[in-house]
Amino acid sequence: MDDNCTSVFQNTEPTGKSTAKKRVFRIFPLWFFIPFCIAVLCGVFHIISRNSTAFANFFTDNVSSVFRFITAKTTMVLPFSFAETVVICLPLIIGLFMHRAYLQITRKERSRPFFILLTVCCVLYSLFVLNFACGYNAERIDKRLGMERKKVSAEELYYTASQLKDEVNALALGISYGTDGFSVMPYSFDGMSRKLCDAFDSLHEKYPFIQSYSGRVKPVALSVPMSYAHITGIYVPFTGEANINIDFPDYSIPFTAAHELAHQRGVAREDEANFVAFLVCLESDDPYIRYSGFLSMLEYTLNPLYGANAEYYREVYLALDEGVKGELRAYAAFFEKYRDSTASKVNNAVNDTYLKVQGTEGTKSYGMVVDLAVAYYLQNAEK
C-alpha cells in the first residue's frame, strides 16, 4: 500500500508542474522570455551607468565597443543604409503586421501580436543600451583629455575664432570653389570615409578610449527631407550605421561624417561628438578634411562671438579669405528654404526631448562644443 501511494504521488507531481508550465507558456510564449530577460538585464546596466561614472566608462569602453564593432561591421557590407531602407519600408511592414495580427486574432491567438511588438521593443532597447546608451553617462571628454572647461569670455572667443580663421585662410589657398560659391570635395564619398578612418586610427594612438576600426559612412537617399528637418547626419545604434545627408554642401560633409563616426565609436554627447570630429579633421593629412573641420568649428564660434562682441565678430569675418566668405554666403542662401520648415520644428522638439532624457542639455548641447574648442586653444597657447 505504501508503494502504491508513493507511486501515485510520483506520477501526479510532475504532471502538476507540467500543467503549470504549459499554462504559463500559453500566456507568455517561450520565444518571448529570452529577449525580455536580456532587456531586463540591459535595464539594470542602464540604471547602474546613470549612477556610476566608473561603470559607464567601463561598459562604454569594454562592452559597448564590442557590440558597436559587430553591428557596424555587419551593416558595413551594404552599400546603402539598412536603417533608411527599414524606414522606407515601414508602411509595408506595419501593413503586413496588422494583416497578420488580424488573422491571429480571428484564430483566437489574441496575445501573439502583443508579444511580437513587445519582443521588438525589447530587442531595440537592448541594442540601444548595449551599443550606445551608457556613453551618455561616461566621464566628460574634457576630463579625459586633461582640459579645463569653463565659462569663456569675449576675449577668449575672439582668440579662438582668430586661430580658426588663420587656419581656414591658409587652407583656402589650395581649395577649388565652384561658380555657385561652394568648394568642391576632391574625392568620392568612400574615399572620404577611408581618410576619416585613417584619421581616427591616428587619434586613437593619442587617446585610446576613442575606438578605432575601418568603417564607412552611408549616404542617405532621403537627404532632401532630412534637410527640411535640419538633420545633417544621424547615427543609428540599432544598426551601427553612420548616415549622412548628402544634400548639404561638400565642405560640411567631412565634419558631419566625422561627427557620426564619433558616435559610432561611443562618443554619445553631441558637443563631445562635435569636438572629436574637429580633432579627427585636424588629425587628417588631407587639406580638404582639415578645411572642413576648421571652417565648421569657426561657424560654431562666430555665432556666440557676435553675441559677446559684434566688433570682434566683424574683425574676424572681414579678415576671412574671399573664397571662404563666398562659401558662407552660398550656404546662407542654400539653407534659406529650409530655415523655418515645420519638419525642423518637430524634429527639434523630438531631438531636444530625447537628449534631455539622456541627461544632456538638449539640442543646445551641439553649440556647447565652443567651450571645448576654447579650452583646447587656450591649453595649446600655454604650451
Structural account:
There is one protein chain. With 383 residues, the chain is mainly alpha-helical. The chain is 69% helix and 3% strand. It has helices spanning 2-27, 30-51, 53-76, 82-106, 111-131, 141-144, 154-172, 189-206, 223-228, 253-264, 270-283, 287-308, 310-318, 322-335, 342-357, 369-382; strands spanning 217-219, 233-236, 241-244. Strands 1-3-2 form a 3-stranded mixed beta sheet. Helix 7 packs antiparallel against helix 12 and helix 11 (270-283) crosses helix 16 (369-382). It is globular and about 75 Å long.
Low-confidence stretches: 1-13
Shape: globular
DSSP strand count: 3
Cα-to-Cα separation, first versus last residue: 95 Å
Radius of gyration: 26 Å
Order of strands across the widest beta sheet?
1-3-2
- Beta-strand residue fraction: under 5%
Structural class: mainly alpha
Total helix count?
A: 16
Report the average pLDDT across residues.
88
Features:
single chain, 383 residues, mainly alpha, 16 helices, 69% helix, disordered N terminus
Write the layout of secondary structure elements.
Layout (H helix, E strand, L loop, with lengths): L1 H26 L2 H22 L1 H24 L5 H25 L4 H21 L9 H4 L9 H19 L16 H18 L10 E3 L3 H6 L4 E4 L4 E4 L8 H12 L5 H14 L3 H22 L1 H9 L3 H14 L6 H16 L11 H14 L1
Parallel strand pairs: 1-3
Antiparallel strand pairs: 2-3
